[in-house]
Amino acid sequence: MSEGEAQAPSKSPSPSKAELDRDFSELYKAHLRDVYSYAYYRVGNHHDAEDLTEQAFLQAYRHFERARQESDGRPMRPWLIRIAHNLAANLYRDRSRRPVANIEAVEPPAHPHTTEQVVEGREELRLIMRMLRGLPEERREALIMRFALGMDNREIARALGKTDGATKVLIHRALKQLSELMEAERGEPRDD
Amino acid sequence: MTEPGRMDLEALLADALRPIEPPEKVAGRVESTLSAITEEAAAALGSWAEELSDSELESLRDPRNWVRPVAAVAVGGLAAGALVVVEARRRRKPTGLRANASRLIGDFGSELRR
Asked: What local confidence, expressed as pLDDT, does residue A2 receive?
């Protein structure tokens, strides 16, 4: 899904309720999969991901008019993901525990390869999911946004409330740490 | 330029973190909740307007009925202003012979302690 699909409409003096509802419906259709994917990789199970997605869109609906005015024509996806991000944080806090299943429990998707490749590939994928769990939360979030949602640095920066530069550094460090964790797990020596 | 190891890692991440298609029921659930909210809001607005009788609407428009609220706001404002003045006077430092003498004694005491 390309980011351009749900740009915020240009500002009009006071859009009618019907116009707002129609624009929100477009936003919802364009980004349901993004919000769900983010929620799923964040909480690690379909049940909580469904709740989180529903809550995120309800909250977005309540604040849509103001957010649209403030977005000044910029894409709304980072705003939606930020809502889901905050809700997920609240979910953990309210339950006072980590989710029952987390990202490491997420089954990697199936691939159309030979059985041997599939087994080997799935082991690699399981390993990387497990190693992702070892990253600090913010680094893991940034990688989910980049790879599961295809967000660029600017979008991730807006979703996390950071500057573009800080986000670039965050992703670089996340990849470096993940690479080190993978090497350590495989017993390979590091280059640096 | 991107290092080969990092490229492999990024390819692996892209493979592991594929977008997840939401189950059909999620879309249905979100849509029905949103339409319920919109309908509720519309119904609430409609019933509120219906509850006001014609005479009530007419009296709301009559400027003669605005005197009481305006007077209430004015009286409230005066009372708040008076409270502010009283509080400011209370906080002001005391002046006069007795106050000066007491301040001098205090200053003298602190000099002695040094």
From this structure: 44
Provide, as residue numbers in chain A, all residues whose Cβ is less than 8 Å from the Cβ of B9: 128, 175, 178-179, 182
CB contact under 8 A, B26 and A124: no
What's the CATH fold of domain A110-192? Answer: Arc Repressor Mutant, subunit A (1.10.10)
Residue partners of A118: CB distance under 8 A and separation at least 6: A110, A111
- Domain A16-101 part of CATH 1.10.1740: yes
Q: Is the ipTM of this complex over 0.85?
A: no
Among residues B16, B15, B9, B13, which one has the least CA distance to residue A191? B9
How far apart, in whole angstroms, are the C-alpha atoms of residue B51 and residue A68? 33
Residue A102 has pLDDT above 80, yes or no: no
Determine the Cα–Cα distance for residues A85 and A41; give it in Å rounded to an integer.
11
Q: Which of B20, B13, B5 is nearest to A128 (CA)?
A: B13
pLDDT at A16: 80
What are the residue boundaries of the structural domains of chain A, listed by start? 16-101, 110-192
- At position A47, the amino acid (one-letter code) is H
Give Cβ neighbours of residue B102 (< 8 Å, ≥ 6 apart).
Answer: none
Asked whether residue B88 is assigned to any structural domain, the reply reads: yes
Q: What is the 3-state secondary structure (H, E, C) of A38-96?
A: HHHHHHCCHHHHHHHHHHHHHHHHHHHHHHHHHHCCCECHHHHHHHHHHHHHHHHHHHC
**Which residues on adjacent β-strands are paired with residue A81?**
none
Q: Are residues B73 and B110 in the same domain?
A: yes
Query: Which of A53, A124, A175 shows the shortest C-beta gap to B26?
Result: A53
Instruction: Check CB contact under 8 Å for B6 and A178.
Output: no
Domain range for B74 is: 65-114
